[in-house]
Design brief:
Elements lengths: L13 H27 L23 E12 L4 E4 L3 H7 L5 E13 L8 E7 L6 H4 E8 L5 E5 L3 E4 L10 E6 L11 E12 L15 E6 L11 E4 L8 E4 L17 E3 L5 E4 L21 H9 L2
Antiparallel strand pairs: 1-9, 2-8, 3-6, 3-7, 3-9, 4-5, 4-8, 6-10, 10-11, 12-14, 13-14
InterPro entries: Caulimoviridae_Movement, Viral_movement
Pfam family, one: MP
Length: 309
């Protein structure tokens, strides 16, 4: 154990030394406070629509519209599913259009507690219209928000029919956490999103500029004071994981399973639960994409929506 001592030197003002120490402590406290304040006020950087879609002089007269949406939601500490498409928006778009094309999605997860707490998080975006879990995966990422918010951009580049009766199942975000123990009814996390999409009368050439590669994502850490990476870094799924094992409950409908079709890292059970092991995950059939959150999903939302079909 080291002991800090001070030696008196004749002619040197001890009070000045004390003042310097106090100033240094105050400076450190001010720096920490500034970091925490900036993280509390942080939001996803905006992206220009022109970087997502090619917009010509006469394109504004064609049958589509472009919409940017963002919202912050507080979520509980347990596993939660969020239905990302708004039934109200879908019904509104149906009056003029037939298809919706998703061009860009930005998703961030932000801790609503102090930095430095180990907090692994699993995010899975799925198309729940698929009955098979592995086929339903659009993107899957495991990360840790111990040092503050983390976000990623994605360019899904796919269309969905606005009159599809299961359209609300097209984009469902599953969120699972570990090591977070809070009192009941605590909301320790916030999900922030932004989406850029077109509503169109035809699926012909949405004129997108970018598309996400398979099995890859680009993760940005908002708190650069705790990372040596100051530029965007493209990572394979197995590079960004923390080697956790996750068990998801009720993510698929109960059904008989064919064990010969199981992937060792993703194990489905006939009760509707799924185990995911990230230690050596490699899913070549899954495509990377992400989408957006407009409301918290529930059976009530789905029932009310289907009544209007």
């Amino acid at each position: 154990m080291s002991i800090l001592s001070k030696k008196y030197i004749p002619g040197k003002n001890i009070n000045n030394e004390q003042d310097n120490d106090d100033n240094q402590i105050n400076s450190i406290e001010e720096t920490v406070n500034n970091i925490e304040q900036s993280l509390n006020n942080w939001t996803i950087p905006k992206t220009n629509i022109n970087t997502i879609y090619r917009i010509g002089t006469f394109d504004y007269f064609q049958g589509y519209s472009i919409k940017m949406t963002e919202q912050t939601l507080s979520i509980g500490q347990n596993q939660q599913n969020l239905y990302l498409l708004s039934s109200r928006s879908i019904l509104e778009h149906r009056t003029k259009y037939k298809f919706l094309h998703v061009g860009l999605v930005q998703i961030a997860i932000k801790p609503l507690f102090r930095i430095g707490i180990d907090a692994p998080v699993l995010l899975i975006l799925r198309d729940k219209r698929h009955k098979d879990f592995q086929n339903s995966i659009l993107t899957m990422a495991e990360t840790n928000i111990a040092n503050g918010p983390i976000y990623f951009n994605c360019y899904p580049n796919f269309s969905v029919g606005l009159f599809d009766k299961n359209i609300l199942d097209t984009l469902v975000l599953t969120i699972e956490t570990k090591n977070l123990e809070f009192k009941d009814d605590t909301k320790p996390l916030a999900i922030i999103y932004r989406v850029c999409y077109k509503t169109m009368t035809t699926t012909l050439e949405p004129k997108t500029r970018l598309s996400s590669p398979r099995n890859e994502t680009i993760i940005f850490e908002a708190n650069t004071n705790h990372t040596k990476v100051h530029t965007p870094k493209r990572l394979k799924w197995y590079d960004i994981t923390q080697s956790c094992n996750w068990n998801l409950q009720n993510v698929i409908d109960p059904k008989p399973l064919d064990s010969s079709k199981q992937i060792s890292n993703i194990i489905e059970y006939n009760d509707g639960s799924v185990d995911i092991n990230f230690s050596s995950l490699n899913i070549s059939s899954s495509r990377l994409s992400t989408s957006f959150i407009t409301e918290t999903g529930s059976d009530t939302i789905l029932d009310n929506f289907y009544k209007n079909l």
